[in-house]
Amino acid sequence: MNKIVSLIGVPTDIGAGARGASMGPEALRVAGLIPALQGHGLQVLDRGNLSGPANPWQPPVEGYRHLPEVVQWNQATHEAVYAELAAGHLPIMLGGDHCLGIGSISAVARWCREQGKKLRVLWLDAHADFNTNELTPSGNVHGMPVAVLCGYGPKELVEIGGTVPAIKPGVVRQIGIRSVDQGEKRFVHEVGLEVFDMRYIDEMGMRHTMELALGLMDPNTHLHVSFDVDFLDPEIAPGVGTTVPGGPTYREAQLCMEMIADTGLLGSLDVVELNPALDVRNKTADLAVDLIESLFGKSTLMRKDR
Predict the structure, then answer these.
(1) In sequence order, what are the residues at sequence separation of 6 or more whose Cβ sits closer than 8 angstroms to the Cβ of residue 115?
(2) How is the cofactor bound (predicted)?
(3) What is the four-CA torsion angle of 223, 287, 19, 133, rounded to 10 degrees?
């Protein structure tokens, strides 16, 4: 794993249905993300926050809320993440809402194409985020990033990575899903997205789930983790705008992160949808930092290096 990580703050809630995720990057810094990563032998470059348009808080136009602003924020995210990958660093995009996954993952996909690397995307989330402007009940673009990345969305967004689609559905593994809109559900089945929902995790356990989600990777695979904090059960992570009961417990989430770390293939990370305005004494940010540490090798027991 790369020993130099770059933090890129993207302070916007432009794609969300509640205000406040724009404060997420600072909450993660306040929760000690930088010293936590340094404690694992990593060199941390904090690139500060990107800038972009303010949230106009307008109703949807043709099924999309704030599309011009969403495009601007995602273009900036794409360029920043791509620059860090090109410099040989491991980018950590601190959101902001999950629409920013469009810019981040399109940059990772572009870099993988240029390097001849395979891509695997783990989408840790309560939601499938596979809506389109026809399917969406809200018009909020944070419910659409996976669909956009797979080529289903407005031209300005699907083309951000320079190749359409940016990724194929087959590179994605969704974990922790438990809230999917009706039309979205049909669409997910149509395109063959691989989804490990909470029922699957309940029946088969997190270990088996992660073994499948991480299967068939090799040393030439770039693993990208897109971690929406609403993946976690709201009992332990209240600071999100879209809480859905029945998510992974603390230990299930830790196991998930530890098994990702065990692969040694983590190449980039998004941490999104942390909303300090809805949090309790920065509890959710503290937990997110704890789990990010596990992604970078913190484990419960002393384990010998493999």
Answers:
(1) 222
(2) Binds 2 manganese ions per subunit.
(3) 30
The answer to whether 13 touches 21, Cβ cutoff 8 Å, is yes
Rounded to 10°, the helix 250-263/283-295 angle is 30
To the question of pTM greater than 0.90 for the whole model, the response is yes
Encode 23-42: b = buried (16+ Cβ within 10 Å), e = exposed: bbbbbbbebbbbebbeebeb
Question: Strand 172-177 and strand 43-49: pairing?
Answer: unpaired
Percentage of the chain modeled with pLDDT above 90: 96
Number of Cβ within 10 Å of residue 19's Cβ equals 14
Using CB atoms within 10 Å of the CB of residue 50, give its burial: 0 to 12 exposed, 13 to 18 middle, 19+ buried.
buried
- Catalytic sites, residue numbers: 98, 125, 127, 129, 142, 228, 230, 273
As given in the structure block, the two tokens for residue 289 are 């930092």
In the chain, the domains with their CATH numbers are 4-295 (3.40.800.10)
Q: How confident is the model at residue 270 (pLDDT cuts 50, 70, 90)?
A: very high
Closest CA to 279 of 240, 250, 236: 240
